[in-house]
């Protein structure tokens, strides 16, 4: 039996990422994969093979810098905990941050 994912957990993770980006004035474009089949297909095709779950599809949030895959929520969270979000995102950190 497949493990069902709690939609509110996904939404919380998405809000966590978006809130951090907004608070740190990091520009981003949010892609809705629930309402847009093209966005969903693009995400599924562009998450690298070694970052996909063993079964099913990768779940949001998945983070990209343009078309370069940067990681999932767990990787983002780890980078945030280590004060290394700019490096994780592939961005130049402002003075005084990593």
SSE string, helix = H, strand = E? HHEEHH
Radius of gyration: 14 Å
Biggest sheet: strand arrangement? 1-2
Global geometry:
globular
Total strand segments: 2
> Tally the helices: what do you get?
4
> Helicity, in percent?
40-55%
- As residue ranges, the low-confidence spans are none
Range of strand content:
5-15%
End-to-end Cα distance, whole Å, is 43 Å
Average pLDDT for all residues: 92
Largest sheet: 2 strands, antiparallel
Structural class: mainly alpha
Detailed description of the structure:
With 98 residues, the protein is mainly alpha-helical. It contains 4 helices and 2 strands; from the N terminus they run ααββαα. The chain has helices at 7-23, 37-46, 73-81, 85-89; strands at 62-65, 68-72. The protein has a two-stranded antiparallel ribbon. Strand 1 (62-65) and strand 2 form a beta hairpin. The protein starts with 6 loop residues before the first helix and ends in a 9-residue tail after the last helix.
């Amino acid at each position: 039996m497949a493990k069902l994912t709690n939609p509110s957990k996904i939404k919380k993770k998405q809000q966590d990422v978006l809130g951090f980006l907004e608070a740190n004035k990091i520009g981003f474009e949010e892609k809705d994969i629930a309402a847009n089949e093209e966005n969903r297909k693009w995400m599924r095709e562009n998450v690298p093979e070694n970052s996909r779950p063993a079964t099913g599809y990768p779940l949001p949030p998945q983070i990209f810098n343009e078309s370069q895959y940067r990681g999932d929520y767990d990787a983002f969270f780890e980078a945030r905990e280590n004060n290394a979000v700019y490096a994780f995102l592939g961005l130049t950190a402002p003075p005084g941050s990593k």
